[in-house]
Amino acid sequence: GAGVSQSPSNKVTEKGKDVELRCDPISGHTALYWYRQSLGQGLEFLIYFQGNSAPDKSGLPSDRFSAERTGGSVSTLTIQRTQQEDSAVYLCASSSDRVKETQYFGPGTRLLVL
Amino acid sequence: QKEVEQNSGPLSVPEGAIASLNCTYSDRGSQSFFWYRQYSGKSPELIMSIYSNGDKEDGRFTAQLNKASQYVSLLIRDSQPSDSATYLCAASSGSARQLTFGSGTQLTVLP
């Protein structure tokens, strides 16, 4: 079946602009995660959605970052007033089995802030 | 600070040999452990998951877990050049059961 999809695959923006990144999880998966992978920082957790529950935002690095998940499916990660240090690959993962917590990753969005 | 530590390598093995990748974790509350393979420019791909002490085999891959020692390993038998990639160890933790990743071990299998 279809895996996790993300768009755009690449995004170049200017410092100070806002960007929106989209994630479409595997159909039926109730859990959705956003991670960021940057050189020197590795892969780090950003935010977690489980069904219709309030999201776990404990990994968001600043209040410029926000995310929403509409209808328990598609999620959008928004970065306001982008900074050069926001340049990274943003990865989305989804999971269907919270007990076993197996997460499947999308292809990522490569963000470059000039 | 919950941490997952890996030897960053690089690790080189000849084709057909066994590659051994190791990982330690700090959070004793972690219940689930994963190995992901990541090719350059691609996203992580799940290779193995392990939840109980002992060994778990899947084809050429064997994952080993020792919760007392807080140690996870991955063995790749009959290594192939196509196995050349970065291998990420991850442990689930926190209220969201999010994954905490190690920095990855870069493996090169030499033909």
Provide structural commentary.
The complex is a heterodimer of chains A (114) and B (111). Chain A is mostly beta strands and 114 residues long. Helix content of chain A is 0%, strand content 48%. Chain A has strands spanning 5-7, 10-13, 19-24, 31-38, 42-50, 65-69, 75-79, 88-95, 104-105, 109-113. In chain A, the strands form two sheets. In chain A, strands 2, 4, 5, 8, 9 and 10 form a six-stranded mixed sheet that branches. In chain A, strands 1-3-7-6 form a four-stranded antiparallel sheet, with no helix packed on it. Chain A is globular and about 40 Å long. Chain A starts with a strand and ends with a strand. With 111 residues, chain B is an all-beta fold. Chain B is 0% helix and 56% strand. Chain B has strands at 4-6, 11-14, 19-25, 33-38, 45-50, 54-58, 61-66, 71-76, 85-93, 98-101, 105-110. In chain B, strands 2, 4, 5, 9, 10 and 11 form a six-stranded mixed sheet that branches. Chain B has a five-stranded antiparallel sheet with strand order 1-3-8-7-6, with no helix packed on it. In chain B, strand 9 and strand 10 (98-101) form a beta hairpin. Classes of the chains: A mainly beta (114), B mainly beta (111). Chains A and B meet through strand 5, strand 8 and strand 9 of A and strand 5 and strand 10 of B.
